[in-house]
Design brief:
The chain has 260 residues and is α/β, with parallel strands linked by helices. The protein folds into 2 domains: 186 residues, 3-Layer(aba) Sandwich (Rossmann fold), CATH 3.40.50.1820; 62 residues, no CATH class. The chain has 11 helices and 8 strands. Strands 1-2-4-3-5-6-7-8 form an 8-stranded mixed sheet, sandwiched between helices. Strand 5, helix 3 and strand 6 form a beta-alpha-beta unit. Helix 1 crosses helix 11, helix 3 packs across helix 8 and helix 4 runs antiparallel to helix 5. The longest helix has 17 residues. The radius of gyration is 17 Å and the shape is globular.
Length: 260
């Protein structure tokens, strides 16, 4: 990240700009930094100016307590100002929930695109699972058990125990523990985990909700519900894609939407 700007509460935000054309700010999900979005930024750089950033509490960005979702919306406002005040927002997973809330709050963006926001109402027992995760995550972070917090999140995503224990032994684990406190931020962004119908209905700009054809059906249901709930919504399903969507497949769809 070679650029810095400052949010309203004084938090330093690190970001990077790639490409040329209409601007899109790419917002990562849980356990991710701006670097996670870099391959997508590179894929659309021939058609878009792609902005990636480390969300507060991650990577090269700072952090300021106490956390509130409103502070992250102010972060997006600061980025928007830094890149010229005219941009599209794109968010992945819980990052998608953040950009939808930003748009509902009136952040002056042209358009919003999201990929598989995991609203729990579409998964059987999802609301209960979300509540149990929230309680266990809060306890683990309060006790300083970052590794346990990461494990909780990986289980929430459906990763098997053998793979979780393998991840614990991998060189990536230290980095995952480093950003573990930010899991509470994404949990706050998701709220009670349910589709925020009233908030989505307040969004006044076009919204593209994208899902993977190889993801669980409930993910596609959630994505379709976003498109149906916002006043100007559309849904796309990308054949063969999962929650870990390939930039080569998503890139052209996103670039076309940004240009529109």
């Amino acid at each position: 990240m070679d650029k810095k700007t400052t949010s309203r509460d004084g938090t330093a935000l690190a970001y990077q700009v790639t490409g040329q054309g209409p601007t899109v700010i790419l917002v990562s999900g849980a356990m991710s930094t701006g670097g996670t979005m870099a391959p997508l930024a590179q894929r659309i750089a021939d058609r878009c100016t792609a902005v990636v950033h480390d969300r507060r509490g991650r990577g090269a960005s700072g952090d300021t307590a106490p956390y509130a979702v409103e502070r992250e919306i102010e972060d997006l406002a600061a980025l928007l100002d830094a890149v010229g005040g005219d941009a599209v927002l794109f968010g992945v997973s819980s990052g998608g929930a953040l950009v939808l809330e930003a748009a509902a709050s009136g952040l002056p963006v042209r358009r919003v695109a999201v990929y598989e926001v995991p609203y729990a109402d579409f998964l059987q027992g999802g609301a209960e699972r979300e509540a149990a995760y929230k309680e266990a995550l809060t306890e683990a972070l309060a006790d300083g058990r970052r590794g346990d917090a990461v494990e909780l999140f990986l289980r929430l995503t459906g990763l098997g125990e053998e793979m979780i224990q393998g991840a614990r032994q991998s060189p990536m684990w230290a980095g995952m523990e480093a950003v573990a406190p930010s899991l509470a931020y994404d949990d706050a962004v998701m709220g009670d985990g349910l589709l925020p119908r009233e908030r989505l209905a307040a969004i006044s700009v076009p919204v593209l909700s994208v899902a993977g054809g190889a993801s669980p059906e409930w993910m596609r249901e959630a994505s379709r519900a976003v498109a149906k709930t916002v006043p100007q919504g559309a849904c796309r399903v990308l054949a063969g894609q999962t929650h870990m969507v390939e930039p080569e497949v998503l890139g052209p769809v996103l670039a076309e939407f940004v240009a529109g």
